[in-house]
Amino acid sequence: MTWQDRYITFFKKIPSPFHLAIYLSVLALLLSFLCTEASIGDVSVAWTKGFWELLPFGMQMLLILVLGSALAESRVAQILIDEIAKRITSGRQAVFWMSVFALLSGYLNWGLSLVFSALLAKKISQSLTERKIKYNHGLLVASAYLGLMVWHGGLSGSAPLDVASTAHKLVDKIGTVNTRETLASNMNLFSLACCLLFLPLVSFLFSKRQGAQQNAIIQVEEDRKYRSVKGLPVGRIFALLMLFFFVISFWHMQSSILSLNNINMMLFITALALHGHLAIFMASVQKGLGNAVGIVLQFPIYAGLMGLLKYTGLLSEISAAILQIADVSNFYFLSFLSAGLTNILVPSGGGQWQVQGPILIEVAQQLGLSIPKTVMALAYGDQLTNMLQPFWALPLLGITKAKVSDILPYTLVFMMVGFLIFTAALYIF
What we know:
Number of domains: 1
Number of strands: 0
């Protein structure tokens, strides 16, 4: 057995994402007692309070997964994705272009990237298996996950967009921070360019290890079953009505077109319109619901974990301990590291910024350092350890039928490459 085989085999022993969520929760419970002055009552309240805080967001994620799957089940979408998949003629091509697509779409919007990269990976997998072309399924799915390593420095990044608004909670301390200083900064553009250059190359080189997905051909046959229903296409008519009201409301509300709610609305309208008939649409939705078990079960667990960190003061203690050794020379790097560590326990960029952001900003002001760069240091740390934390991979794993142990050998390497890129950016600029 080669060292590559030993490396891959090692990760087969990794527990499921649900097990990891439970283990991390127990760890957070212990740390809450050991590192804070919270009583058992305080800890209980913190966990229970947090447990339900992600329900709206969890529903958004459930819908983006189910509606995205329903869209992919439509005849038009299948033809389009099949055409793209057919142009892939080797395993190396598959992982390279999958990486590029995931990174570019992740910069545009993390939710959009997650669902469409998953759907494209699934179709490429099916197409290659059908044509008996060998490929590495785990690497393909891992490449589809790469959008989550650039998202916080992209157009849907929680922290940069929050500080650019006039209503964020630190506006009295730092004012508003224009996105030209964060998302459009030379540092961030350099980071994105390096990710686009090196990460697809890493995927390409990794693809020397071939391994075909044996059961994908069965899935191909299932997907191509398409029921025909006669009669008035009520679904398509209602979709047009929904589109009319959506456009009018969007015009009046002036919300971001790339918000999760708007993405879900567009997915709902498009999927319903393409299917045409309600019965077909419902059947495709029911099929997609089978992939959503991980979201339903794990989002509340992680929400409880976030509650522990937030309401017991544990996150503040962890961040403060790391930043005690901070000075002008290492502050940005330590902020980056602390954000990466925190993201393993709090896999929500927006939630992490709300809790950890004020601590980092206060230290940055004390040291007289750049606020925009501090914001981006947190963003880089948060997005980097997504490659280690399987929370955001749940929709992807559900659609592609992969396991976390299949992708982790590769996402870990992506994380190490990303660590070098983001560290270089923080020290160069």
